[in-house]
Specification:
Layout lengths: L1 H24 L3 H6 L6 H12 L2 H15 L4 H30 L4 H9 L2 H33 L5 H16 L4 H29 L3 H11 L12 H13 L5 H9 L3 H27 L1 H4 L15 H13 L5 H36 L5 H25 L4 H25 L5 H20 L4 H22 L5
């Protein structure tokens, strides 16, 4: 216990020191939001990867998906790397960087305004970003707090949520993007070490993968098949949601706005893909072993009504397979994953308020210093709202992540992807795909459709509507 607290305290102090140093080097709004647009390949690669894979993946997502789908859940990690990382970098990274220079923009909302010559789409985009990234941030706080509650005796859930909120607000209001990217490199290395530990102790703890396979076959042969018990459609929707949404997730696209040059893109693409393969596949594989290590006979008292069982499954599983003397490394791994994701979410959401909304619609003459200050204040407000939502534990982590990614992906996928890759898309198609995709997702979700499936259908609608409407309705010359 004392070792865990000491290591976590040193970790916390290190991050705050980095934030203070970064604050002194942050002189302009571009420095704060994009690191001056000159961030190198390795920092960008780790920043992208660690923002993609947060504690949400390791805790709520991998635990529930692994329990339900078995080995086939690993497909999600594989396609996350192949589509959500490799293909996104290949198709978008350099084009996004070129667009940022050509249009002189620093956010996705500004890009949509410039690309379609449609001012109001920036307003709608900034609202959607701020509103729907709050539950995602809350899910990260939720997952991390479950872990600390389970692994640090005497610590209550709300203590962990409030502490993480205060710590995050302090850290993120200081340093800006360049500090985040520097820390993300460190976070990424910690995550690599941590997942290697996870896979080693999982396999050795079961005395070999063959024992895990035999036990899962005994429970249900479909747990070791190509498609798990829930069937192909639920699996496809999870792959689609988590792999295709990154084509239009603002906190991930931001990394390309900040990258240095085309050479950095090529190096970063390879590095981030390898990182994603390791992190994603290991997370979902370890999650699939839950039924081996946790059985009805040894179900712990920790699985109670204070939280959904699957949000506590991975913390319990990890505490069983990782020796107590080394468990602090897993804590640091998950804290690292969470801090990077939170940093990206908060920075994007706060800039949506300050740059896109305030500067775009209230005060177009706002100074650089004022925008930076407003972004820092908005960061604190965003974190506080996320903490409040996390305290209420409104749903399981998978459901929260599903509606957050689904809503944002369905709103932005059609306008952004066709805007970058196609020349014929126009503002009518952009508006139609934005509202049709988002509306479809929300209507389905509130009608009782599971959030990953609602988001998947919404994204497909968004992709289909833009070219169709753009072809039918032409702008007046």
């Amino acid at each position: 216990m004392a070792i865990k607290i000491t290591v976590l305290a040193l970790y916390t102090i290190t991050i705050i020191v980095f934030g203070i140093i970064g604050a002194k080097k942050t002189r302009t709004f571009s420095d704060f939001l994009l690191g001056g647009g000159k961030v190198g390949p390795w920092m960008t690669a780790f920043s992208y990867g660690t923002a993609y894979f947060s504690a949400v993946i390791f805790i709520g997502f991998a635990g529930k998906i692994g329990w339900g789908f078995g080995y086939s859940g690993v497909w999600i990690g594989f396609f996350n790397a192949l589509i959500g990382v490799l293909l996104v970098w290949k198709l978008l990274a350099w084009k996004v960087k070129q667009a940022s220079v050509s249009y002189g923009i620093s956010t996705m909302s500004e890009y949509l305004e410039a690309r379609y010559n449609a001012r109001n789409i920036k307003l709608f985009a900034s609202i959607v970003i701020f509103v729907f990234l709050i539950p995602y941030s809350a899910a990260v706080f939720q997952g991390l707090s479950y872990l600390f509650e389970s692994s640090l005796p005497g610590l209550e859930y709300w203590h962990a949520v409030v502490f993480m909120g205060l710590f995050t607000a302090l850290y993120l209001s200081l340093g800006g993007y360049k500090t985040m990217a520097s820390l993300d490199t460190f976070f990424g290395i910690v995550m690599v070490v941590g997942v290697i530990m996870m896979i080693i102790f999982t396999v050795t703890g079961a005395d070999g993968i063959h024992n895990i396979t035999a036990k899962l076959n005994e429970i249900n042969p479909k747990l070791t098949s190509v498609v798990g018990p829930p069937g192909w459609w639920p699996l496809f929707s999870l792959v689609m949601l988590t792999s295709v949404a990154p084509f239009a997730m603002p906190q991930l696209i931001q990394k390309f706005l900040a990258i240095r040059d085309e050479k950095a893109v090529k190096t970063g693409m390879i590095a981030s893909t390898v990182f994603a393969l390791l992190i994603g596949c290991v997370a979902y594989f370890v999650g699939s072993t839950g039924r081996f290590f946790i059985t009805p006979e040894n179900t712990p008292q920790a699985f109670n009504d204070s939280a959904p069982i699957f949000d506590k499954l991975m913390p319990e599983l990890l505490m069983r397979i990782i020796p107590d003397s080394l468990f602090v490394i897993i804590l640091v791994l998950l804290l690292s994953a969470s801090m990077s994701t939170l940093a990206s979410l908060v920075l994007i959401s706060s800039s949506a308020l300050s740059k896109d909304f305030y500067h775009g619609f209230i005060n177009r003459e706002a100074s650089d210093e004022k925008l930076t200050l407003l972004t820092r204040i908005a960061s604190i407000v965003f974190v506080l709202l996320s903490v409040v939502l996390a305290l209420f534990k409104i749903d399981t982590i998978v459901a929260i992540l599903g509606i957050s990614w689904g809503a944002i992906g369905s709103a932005f996928l059609g306008p952004f992807l066709w805007g970058i890759l196609g020349k014929k898309a126009n503002k009518y198609g952009a508006y139609a795909s934005f509202f049709a995709g988002l509306g479809t997702t929300l209507i389905l979700y509130f009608s009782g459709v599971q959030s990953p499936q609602a988001g998947t259908i919404g994204m497909l609608v968004s992709l289909a509507v833009n070219p169709v409407v753009s072809m039918i309705i032409k702008p007046k010359v």
